Amino acid sequence: MIPARPDSAAGPTALRIRLGAQLRRLRQARGIGRDTAGWEIRGSGSKISRMELGRVPFKERDIEDLLTLYGVADDERVALMALARRANAAPWWQRFGEVVPPWFLSYLGLEEAATRIRTYETQFVPGLLQTEEYARALIARSCSGASPSEIDRRVEVRRGRRQVLDRPDPPHFWAVLDEAVLRRPIGGCEVMRAQLEALLEAAGRPGVRLQVVPFDGGTPSAPGFPFTILRFAEPELPDVVYVEQLTGATYLDRPGDVDHYALAMERACVEAEPPERTADILARVLADAASRSR
């Protein structure tokens, strides 16, 4: 049965994950192995695994054949095929392919599909919380050869990403920021002031939790680089750790790797000031910035 949860705002990755989980349940309910299901669609057990994890687009013919193998008919079959067609729709970020690196495309889909996002940031405000002016200044700084139109396109991608927190069912977002993030004046005093005020507003949202690791807390035990852990609604899906490098990114989902980063995140949360102190810290940084600009 298709979950009753509304999915009108869900992106293709979220729909693929939902459909893949349903296909897994149907296969297991019939006692059919992955290799047998793979043979039915002229593929392999590995292909079935990727489909059930929502990692690849679906061919309608494959879905039709699997539903026949699993004995699915009538209204349930019609609903699942409709879900497959929506899952194959082009994502909103596809039109930004000329400015979005290929290795980042998977992250955009996972971010949109996640129900919980935990991030540790040592240098910059997380993308989901950046103002447009801050994002523009940061992009211009990191992409020194980019044209104004390319910078505009990259800023538009940031704007599209932020909409995930404005959905009726936003993911729970938990960010731990090094104090350096708040005191590095990206874009100048006015841009940074507006960004800090935006963080204050974000910290008041019910689904957002912000913590700050203060300078006077000693050397943090968390890694000296940013990382993000994403969790999904389907319990069968593993958490994914995303670690970005200068020219690529690493995606980790093996339990041992994820556990290592989850422990690092927990340590960062313990070393950071509690969320109840975040508003006071941001207000103090704002006051310090105002006094320096006089």
Structure description:
With 294 residues, the chain is α/β, with parallel strands linked by helices. 50% of the residues lie in helices and 11% in strands. The protein contains twelve helices and six strands. A six-stranded mixed sheet has the order 3-2-1-4-5-6, sandwiched between helices. Helix 1 (12-29) crosses helix 6 (102-113) and helix 4 packs antiparallel against helix 5. The longest helix has 18 residues, at 12-29. It is elongated. It starts with 11 loop residues before the first helix and ends with a helix.
Give descriptors for this structure.
disordered N terminus, 12 helices, 50% helix, alpha/beta
Helix-strand blueprint:
Elements: H1 12-29, H2 34-40, H3 45-52, H4 60-69, H5 74-87, H6 102-113, E1 116-121, H7 132-142, H8 148-162, E2 172-178, H9 179-183, H10 189-203, E3 208-213, E4 227-231, E5 240-244, E6 249-252, H11 255-271, H12 278-293
Parallel strand pairs: 1-2, 2-3
Antiparallel strand pairs: 1-4, 4-5, 5-6
Helix pairs in contact: 1-5, 1-6, 2-3, 4-5, 7-8, 10-12
- Helix and strand content put the structural class at alpha/beta
Low confidence ranges: 1-8
What distance lies between the first and last C-alpha atoms, to the nearest angstrom?
Answer: 63 Å
Average residue-wise pLDDT: 90
Provide a quick synopsis of the model:
The chain is of the alpha/beta class. It contains 12 helices and 6 strands.
